[in-house]
Automatic annotation (TrEMBL):
<keyword id="KW-0805">Transcription regulation</keyword>
<dbReference type="InterPro" id="IPR011991">
    <property type="entry name" value="ArsR-like_HTH"/>
</dbReference>
<dbReference type="Pfam" id="PF01022">
    <property type="entry name" value="HTH_5"/>
</dbReference>
<dbReference type="GO" id="GO:0003677">
    <property type="term" value="F:DNA binding"/>
</dbReference>
<dbReference type="GO" id="GO:0003700">
    <property type="term" value="F:DNA-binding transcription factor activity"/>
</dbReference>
<keyword id="KW-0804">Transcription</keyword>
<dbReference type="InterPro" id="IPR036390">
    <property type="entry name" value="WH_DNA-bd_sf"/>
</dbReference>
<protein>
    <submittedName>
        <fullName>ArsR family transcriptional regulator</fullName>
    </submittedName>
</protein>
<feature type="domain" description="HTH arsR-type">
    <location>
        <begin position="10"/>
        <end position="106"/>
    </location>
</feature>
<keyword id="KW-0238">DNA-binding</keyword>
<dbReference type="InterPro" id="IPR036388">
    <property type="entry name" value="WH-like_DNA-bd_sf"/>
</dbReference>
<dbReference type="InterPro" id="IPR051081">
    <property type="entry name" value="HTH_MetalResp_TranReg"/>
</dbReference>
<dbReference type="InterPro" id="IPR001845">
    <property type="entry name" value="HTH_ArsR_DNA-bd_dom"/>
</dbReference>
Length: 110
């Protein structure tokens, strides 16, 4: 593939990952993600995340909203309860594509 086309695709891939990169760049959100990973497929309620992370309920809700808007976390409802979980088909998969593009560019340029 021509280098300018590779660079153009890489730039596009990078732009599509901007929201995800911003969301996972925050240490508090990383802590919440680690907690959700430990929870597995069942997900967790805000109160459970609060108890495990020692963050305030409003802080957890704020960061979950950012993670949800970035396409990393999803929520399902059981009656009035919301369960948050790491979406396995989330926008995090776009990072894989970005890294593959970076690797390809770096290997070719060596």
């Amino acid at each position: 593939m021509h280098d300018s086309l590779k660079l153009s695709r890489l730039k596009s891939d990078f732009k599509s990952c901007t929201r995800v990169l911003s969301a996972i760049g925050d240490e508090t959100r990383q802590l919440i993600l680690f907690t959700l990973i430990d929870a597995g497929c069942d997900g967790m309620r805000v109160g459970e995340i609060t108890a495990q992370t020692h963050l305030s309920r409003p802080a957890v809700s704020h960061h979950l909203k950012i993670l949800k808007n970035a396409g990393i976390v999803e929520v399902y409802k059981v009656t009035t309860m919301n369960y948050y979980y790491l979406d396995p088909s989330s926008k995090l998969m776009d990072l894989k594509k970005l890294i593959a593009g970076l690797e390809d560019l770096l290997i070719v340029s060596q």
